[in-house]
Amino acid sequence: MELDKKKRNIVLVILSMIAGIAYLTPLIRFSFYDQMIVALNINDVQLGTIAGVYGLFNVIGYVPSGILAEKFNTKKLLILSCGAMCLVTLWYSSFPGYTALIIIHALYGIFSVGTFWSPYLKAIRNLGSENEQGRLFGISEGLRGIGQTAVAFLCLWAMGLFATQAAGFRAVLLINAAAFALLTVLVIVLVPDFDKGKKEQNAKAEKKESMWKAFGMSSTWLCIFVIMCGYTLWNTANGYMGTYCTRVLNISPELSSTLSIIRSYIIVFVAGISGGIIMDKFSYKGKGMFWTFLATGVCVLAILFTSKIVAVCVVITVILAYLVNVLKSTYWSILGEAGVPLAMTGIATGIISFIALTPDIFVAPIISRFLAYGEAGGNVELGFNMMLVWMVVWAVLGVFSAILLKRRGVKTKQLEQAAQAENV
C-alpha cells in the first residue's frame, strides 16, 4: 500500500505503540511484582501459575494468529486486539478472584498474540518495499521500547500518588486500559485498510495458499533458522548478562542494575533505529546478518577471555547487548529475501513464530542447569563459561543461517528480475 511519508510514519508509531503496550501490560509483574501480590491477595505460586497460563496461550496463539491474519481484515483484527485488551484490563482493575485472574491472562495471550501478532507483522511489512524492511522493523522495535518505557514510568509515577499498594496498582491498570482505548481510536481513525482492494485476490489465493503450503516452504524454514539463532542469543544475553556482571565480574548490584536499565531501554532504542538503517545499507539482508552474527560471536569470546579485566569486560557486555538487539529488531525484515510471498505473510509468520520463538521455553531451563552445575562444583564462573560457549555455538549457527539467507536472496532477486523481463 502506497502512503505518503508522514502518514506512514504515523501508522508505524501507532502499530509500534500497540506492540509495546500489548507486551508490557500482561507482564506488569516485572515492574510491580510485590504490589501485585498485595493488591490481588495472592501468593508467589499463584502468580507463577497466572504467568504460566499467559505464556501457554502466547505459544499456542502464534499459528492461529497467522491463519487469522490471512482470513480476516488486518485493520479489524488490530481494532479487536486493542479494544479487547482495554476491556480485559478494566476487568483486571476490579481485582477479581484467582480463577478470574487466570481467565484474564488467558485472554491476554489470545488478544496480544492470537489476534494481534501476525496482523502486526503483516501491517509493518506492508508499509514499505523490501529495501526498507530492515529500517521499518528496526524503527518499530525502537519505538516499542520508547512506548514501554514511557508507560512504565507513568505507571511508576501513578503508583507513588496513592497511600496503599492496592490503590496504586489499580491506577497502573487503569492507565494501561486508557492507553489501549486511545490506541483503539487511533487505529480506527488513522490506520489504513491494508486489505482494501485485495478481497478478490485473496479469495483466489485461499484455494492455493494454505497453512500446509507455508509449513512446507523452504523459505519458512530458512526464516525459522535465522530467527531462532538470533532470538536464542538475545534471550540468553538479556536474561543472564546482568547476573554475570554481579556474580563473575563482582560489580555492585547497583551498578549491575544501572547497566541492565541501559541494556533494557536505551540500547533497545539505539539498536532498533540504527540497526534497521544499517541493515538496509547491505545489498542483501543475509550479508548484514552474517556480520552481525559474526560480531556477536567475537564479543562472546572476548567476554570469555577478558573476565579478569573487569572494565573492559563490562564494556564488551554492553556492545553484546547492542548486537543481539540489532538481530532481534531486524530479523523479521528477512521475509522477502528468504522468498516468503507477501500474500502469505500472515500464515508464514504464525508458523515461524511458533517454532522460532521456542527459546522462551528452553533457554532458561538449560542455562539454569549450567549455572547449577558450576555452583555444585564450587565454581560459578564455570557455569557461566558454559553459557558463553552455548552462545558461541548459536552465533556460529547464525553465521551459517545468514550464508544460506544471502544465497536465497541472490536467487530470489534473479527470479524477480527474470519475471520483470518477461513482463516488459
TrEMBL record:
Keyword Cell wall biogenesis/degradation in record: no
Gene Ontology cellular component terms for the protein in this record: plasma membrane
Sequence ranges assigned to domain Major facilitator superfamily (MFS) profile in this UniProt record: 11-409
GO terms, molecular function: transmembrane transporter activity
Subcellular location, record wording: Cell membrane
Membrane topology of this protein: Multi-pass membrane protein
InterPro entries linked: MFS (IPR011701), MFS_dom (IPR020846), MFS_trans_sf (IPR036259), MFS_Transporters (IPR050171)
Membrane-spanning ranges: 12-33, 45-65, 77-94, 100-121, 142-163, 169-191, 212-234, 261-279, 286-303, 309-327, 339-367, 387-405
Main location: membrane
Designated name of the protein: Major facilitator superfamily (MFS) profile domain-containing protein
